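Example record

One chain of 202 residues, shown exactly as stored in the release files.
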Amino acid sequence: MPLKVDEQMPRSFMLLCLGAAAVLLVGQISGVSKRLVPTPVGIVRGKKPPLPPPAQAMQPTSFQPSPPPPPTATQTKLVVDLSDRQLTVYKNAAVLGRYPLAVAMAGWETPTGTFQVLNKETDPIWVHPITSETIGPGPDNPLGKAWIGFWTDGAAEIGFHGTNQEELIGEAVSHGCLRLRNADITAIYAQVTEGTPVIVQP
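Predicted structure tokens for this chain:
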């Protein structure tokens, strides 16, 4: 026998309430899981003013031969072992050097995987990610003598850099970046270009 109208209303209302509760529960679980997984924050670097364009050189009128083809490129790559807190620089299969690192603290781990050098900068400017305080090059700059970036979300960046606290090399203290002694970052800086592979292993 079909239900009367007054019997259908409570049942419809009950189903509607159960559906709304299920949607709210899924949303709460999703929100909690997102809050429990921190996103790498990295370093905020200040942007240096652009250099003026170079003066136009006079174009030679005589015929110039084509430049010779470049020599066969040797492959330089940077391999990070987070568990050993060490960076190894390779050229082809040869090890050029191994350098101790300060790595990220728990909850702010450096992304792992294969990346490439995105940008390089000497005497970088540091901008505090919370207070927006700006610190220029010098002994108080947390980025030290040089910066080699390999990850960005479009706002913050993660990379290798020097430090004004070399006593913390070997510790887990950063917010995603990898710190080196200033002498080491300077040596590595000279060996890499944009596009150099960077492999970060757990």
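Notes: Residues 78 and 198 are 5 Å apart (CA to CA).
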